[in-house]
Automatic annotation (TrEMBL):
Protein name in UniProt: CDP-glycerol glycerophosphotransferase
Enzyme Commission designation: 2.7.8.12
One of the protein's GO biological processes: teichoic acid biosynthetic process
SUPFAM superfamilies in alphabetical order: Nucleotide-diphospho-sugar transferases, UDP-Glycosyltransferase/glycogen phosphorylase
Record-stated family: Belongs to the CDP-glycerol glycerophosphotransferase family.
Domain Glycosyltransferase 2-like, residue spans: 5-169
Domain of life per record: Bacteria
UniProt topology in membrane: Peripheral membrane protein
Lineage, opening ranks: Bacteria, Bacillati, Actinomycetota, Actinomycetes, Micromonosporales
Localization terms from the record: Cell membrane
Entry keyword annotation includes Mitochondrion: no
Kinase keyword on record: no
Length: 736
């Protein structure tokens, strides 16, 4: 018999599900199965489950035809489980490394009905908060088992399904199922403990309980939080059906109920102000209904006062007490902030530099009406006219001619703006004016921190690549690569986004976890790649002729990425040796990352007629069209170039160091877009032997294209313009 069956329901967790499944399947203990239940999720959760099931026989995919909710989805997984123990793990949480070894050892050694494990709350800012395990059990409970009536303090551990493993036969015999609705853990976790004859506690952190910044029910306001009441009613009805066997536990269970109700009520992110009186009234009603005949242990201090106010039904006094407490906390917080700011404020005084005057001008412009016809475009921190914003701008001119597009560029990049394209120079009064008054703000990176998005404005974040390296909040786990990034500031910028363009499902999943906010994802392909799809042979010949490239020459584009953790790094690459390996008909185009646009270029290669530095060329799409082969490392260029279905070589001489220092989302050497070289000598051999076009390289590229390029059909920019500028509904609809 399998030892542990993991039941993992999935609904809108595409950004986190891979980490969850990897944390299970990567454990040293392998006597497991995973029942992953796609609860008709409108995102890619179901596809991720199918992907894992296809490559690991321990994973079983269950795709539900309609959304049933977390509780019923767990029940469906339980019905399919065959393990001796069941562990209900949520799809956005994950296990700690190697924890399953100790869990399995304890299960095999003591055979408990329920094994409670420890957890930490892992927050978006990469901090962790310990659970109450140490408070509930100041001394380790040891390896023995107990009944709840002997250790009722065990009820003070968080009442979730994922911090306990339950013996499946015991659960089936008990006939206990998850109820539908929110707070479904309540009517499962407490009865399981009350009915168990053998409860064990493993004082080891096993679960990372993700505190999501957006999307969690604990951060969702609404009247569905009233569903906590019927869940607790089920607990007491079940105790009634069990008779006197649970009478001794009623006082402790009652105290937990009131504690839970007050926790929900006290969370301003759950209960809106207008609903709080009714919620409080229901607490009082349940207090009167379920109060044990002999009373219960009322907490000390402020918590005890709250309980007594609930018992008396004194909402106004309760509300006034809460308001006074919040006012006191706010005053203390403001005092601390004022003390921190007094120095900088005093130093600034009334000193107004030119930048200060321009910011004042910007604030004044914010008070003027938004121009309903103005769209502002920018790319790569104002480096010029390029990338997804340029593709969207061109289509918007055709489909939305009433929209006036204005570009923001640096002063030293003005000469790159095409004729007829209106622009303003960054840092000028016109720059601040258009930022304050534009209806649409379009960028492939973030606008500066001072930019304030007005309610009437629409912010379109286009991004500029499919991520290999980790991005956004995920960089917190890789401090070497993240440098001094201000993650709180990053999230303030992300909160301005209304739309986020995604090139493929994989990017959508990664953006969800890297940039958690309430924007709408436009999974439509990359607008800048439209041209790669629509350009014909005549355009390719024209471009090559303009560059002085003969039709029969083999043109290779070398485009390495930037190493944030190694600013001066250049991969080992000798252009003269490389073109000699290409043969007499080979030409090499070299393009550095845009971060190096102001760097001093290296000396000219000896064979300069066959090597050209194209780093300053504005439109990389032209270079893709001219090239017969792309050589790159971890750059997003590989995803764009793959649209052309031409050979790609992954040159990864520092893969292990890059992966460990910078962090990556997937092993690009294991799932490459073509042939792979890890040394310069290997790279030369690939071209000398023409292995860049081998059957294995072609199959790898085909798989890569199937995963990342299916949306690039030449109409991505059109889809963006129609939805964002014209308000037309998206072509893509969810399946549920």
């Amino acid at each position: 018999m399998t030892l542990i069956s993991f039941v993992v329901p999935a609904f809108r967790v595409q950004g986190y599900l891979r980490e969850c499944l990897d944390s299970i399947l990567g454990q040293p203990e392998t006597d497991i199965e995973v029942i992953a239940v796609d609860d008709c999720s409108p995102d890619a959760s179901g596809d991720i489950i199918d992907e894992y099931a296809a490559r690991d026989q321990r994973v079983h995919s269950v795709r539900l035809p309609e959304n049933v909710g977390l509780g019923p989805a767990r029940n469906i997984g339980l019905d399919r489980a065959v393990g001796e123990y069941v562990w209900f793990l949520d799809g956005d949480d994950w296990l700690t490394p190697e924890c399953l070894t100790e869990v399995a050892e304890r299960l095999r050694g003591t055979r408990p009905d329920v094994l409670l494990v420890d957890h930490v709350r892992t927050h978006w800012n990469d901090t962790a908060t310990r659970s109450a395990m140490a408070e509930v059990f100041p001394e380790s409970p040891g390896v023995g088992t107990f009944r709840l009536r002997d250790r009722p303090e065990a009820m003070r551990l968080l009442h979730t399904a994922w911090n306990r493993l339950v013996r499946r036969e015991f659960l089936v015999d008990l006939g206990l199922r998850f109820a539908p609705g929110w707070y479904e853990d309540v009517s499962f976790s407490y009865p399981v403990l009350m009915a168990a004859q053998r409860i064990g506690v493993l004082d080891r952190v096993c679960v990372n309980y993700r505190q999501r910044r957006a999307g969690a029910i604990t951060r969702t306001r609404g009247d569905r939080h009233f569903e906590v009441f019927p869940q607790w009613h089920r607990v007491f009805h079940l105790m009634d059906s069990w008779g006197s066997a649970t009478d001794a536990l009623r006082p402790a269970v009652f105290e937990r109920m009131i504690w839970h109700y007050l926790t929900v009520l006290g969370n301003g992110q759950r209960i809106a102000p207008e609903l709080r009186p009714a919620f409080f009234a229901q607490i009082t009603a349940d207090y009167e209904r379920w109060l044990p005949p002999g009373g219960y242990p009322v907490p000390d201090g402020v918590e005890g006062i709250k309980h007594r106010l609930v018992a008396a039904g004194r909402w106004r006094t309760f509300s006034a007490l809460r308001a006074a407490s919040r006012a006191r906390d706010t005053a203390r917080r403001r005092a601390r902030t004022a003390r921190r700011r007094v120095g900088p404020v005093a130093r600034r005084g009334a000193r107004l530099t030119r930048d200060g005057l321009l910011r004042e001008y910007y604030r004044a412009e914010l008070r003027r009406p938004v121009d309903p016809t103005l769209a502002v475009y920018a790319a790569y921190w104002y480096r010029g006219y390029s990338c997804n914003p340029a593709a969207i701008y061109e289509v918007a001119r055709q489909l939305a001619p009433g929209v006036r597009g204005v570009w923001i560029v640096r002063r030293d990049r003005v000469d790159t703006v095409p004729t007829g394209v209106e622009y303003v120079v960054a840092g000028t009064p016109a720059y601040f004016r258009v930022l304050a008054r534009a209806r649409w703000l379009v960028n492939n990176v973030n606008f500066p921190d001072f930019v304030r998005k007005r309610p009437e404005q629409v912010h379109l974040q286009t991004h500029h690549g499919t991520p290999v390296k980790v991005m956004g909040l995920d960089q917190q786990r890789y401090p070497i690569g993240a440098g001094r990034m201000d993650f709180a500031g990053l999230l303030r910028r992300v909160d301005r986004w209304d739309y986020s363009v995604s090139a493929n499902s994989f990017s959508t999943q990664m953006w969800d976890r890297a940039y958690p906010a309430t924007y709408t994802t436009l999974e439509v392909g990359y607008p800048r790649n439209d041209r790669l799809v629509t350009a014909g042979p005549d355009e390719v010949r024209r471009l090559r002729a303009e560059f002085g490239l003969d039709p029969d020459e083999q043109v290779v584009l070398y485009a390495p990425t930037h190493r944030e953790h190694l600013p001066g790094y250049r991969p080992q690459f000798d252009p003269d040796r490389f073109v000699r390996a290409l043969g007499d008909s080979g030409r090499l185009l070299m393009r550095s990352h845009y971060f190096h646009d102001r760097d001093r270029r290296p000396g000219r290669p000896k064979d300069w007629e066959r090597v050209r530095d194209v780093s300053g060329y504005q439109r990389v799409e032209d270079l893709y069209l001219m090239a017969d082969v792309l050589v790159t490392d971890y750059s997003s260029a590989m995803f764009d170039y793959a649209v052309l279905d031409r050979p790609i070589v992954l040159y990864a001489p520092d893969w292990e160091a890059y992966r460990l220092a910078r962090g990556v989302y997937f092993d690009v050497t294991a799932e490459p877009p073509g042939a792979v070289a890890t040394t310069f000598a290997d790279l030369l051999d690939l071209f000398r032997t023409d292995a860049v076009r081998s059957e294995a390289a072609t199959k790898a590229r085909e798989h890569f294209r199937g995963r990342f390029c299916t949306l690039d059909d030449g109409r991505a920019a059109e889809r963006v313009v129609r939805q964002v500028f014209l308000g037309e509904p998206s072509e893509r609809s969810s399946r549920c």
